[in-house]
Amino acid sequence: MGSNSCLNFAITHHCVYLSPSFSPNSKLHNPNPNHNQFLLSRSSFIPIATSSFALHSNHTLSHPRSKKLPLRNAPNFYVAASAKAVPLKVMISGAPASGKGTQCELITQKYGLVHIAAGDLLRVEVAAASENGKRAKEYMEKGELVPDEIVVMMVKERLLQPDSQEKGWLLDGYPRSSSQAAALEDFGIHPDIFILLEVPEDNLVERVVGRRLDPLTGKIYHLKYSPPESEEIASRLTQRFDDTEERVKLRLHTHHQNVEAVLSTYKDITVKVNGNVAKENVFAQIDAALTELLEQREVNSGSLTA
Ligand SMILES: Nc1ncnc2c1ncn2[C@@H]1O[C@H](COP(=O)(O)OP(=O)(O)O)[C@@H](O)[C@H]1O
After folding, report:
1. Nearest CA to ligand 1 atom 20
2. ipTM greater than 0.90
3. CA dist., res. 199 & res. 176, Å (int)
4. Which of 43, 58, 197, 254 could form a disulfide with 94 if both were Cys (CB 3.0 to 4.6 A apart)?
5. Residue 120: which CATH number?
6. What whole-number distance in Å separates Cα of residue 176 and Cα of residue 253?
7. Per-residue pLDDT tens over the stretch 221-258
8. pTM for the full model?
């Protein structure tokens, strides 16, 4: 215990070399989202017997921009793979068009998590016309949940892939029922936080019906609120097959039927976010919740080694 405390003291001390703008919270309130330094924790560091500062190839600091940090000034410590720091496990839920896609992009940009969207995994199967895809499409067209035997293993396998394990994950659109939540618990997969985006229902229908995808860039537009920048882009926009008014109403109905059951599984770690404000303000709420979670971890790890 004594030597651990000593090590952690030294590690904390050496953190200051990671960024010229370091402050106790700078890893959490990172002005440059690409530096990813907020992912570092004391457990990210192990000593090595060399005076240079090495970077592991899979490390969060392996981002090219992080090489600009003045690492030369930090002798004797090796920044170990991010797997050493416990990666974040985040679930995000919300009605169709509640803004999950936009927020997931902002979260992954800042926190470097692997975004896993159950709907996207299913659409890949549908597009490939696999057996599962053909079955899934029948349910998706009706706005109903695809049966667990298709969805559960698909999501579990994605969560257990090395990138999700190393970087942490952001799971979007799963679980949508208590049985899906229970299946993950049975596999020993627990999130750190469950984020619920709340948007009034009237706004949701309008958002869905006007939603379009640019298949070339993956960018999502809204014909009224976020129209394409040029005629050329407008001409290639596509609409999701289930983004019609009739189908969104069915999807909303399914969502309301299931959300309470899922919430009861995660009530202790649920954070409700007002999704009916500008996307930056929605993200600010999520960012604050994730920051608090990381700070809490830091405090807990400090109290364990004190
Ligand atoms: N976890 C899941 N379990 C069962 N079906 C799902 C799940 N996630 C997505 N689906 C199916 O895929 C459809 C599209 O999902 P998604 O892309 O997340 O959009 P939405 O936010 O409109 O539900 C859903 O309406 C449902 O039929």
Report:
1. 96
2. no
3. 17
4. 197
5. 3.40.50.300
6. 12
7. 999 999 999 999 999 999 999 999 999 999 999 999 99
8. 0.70
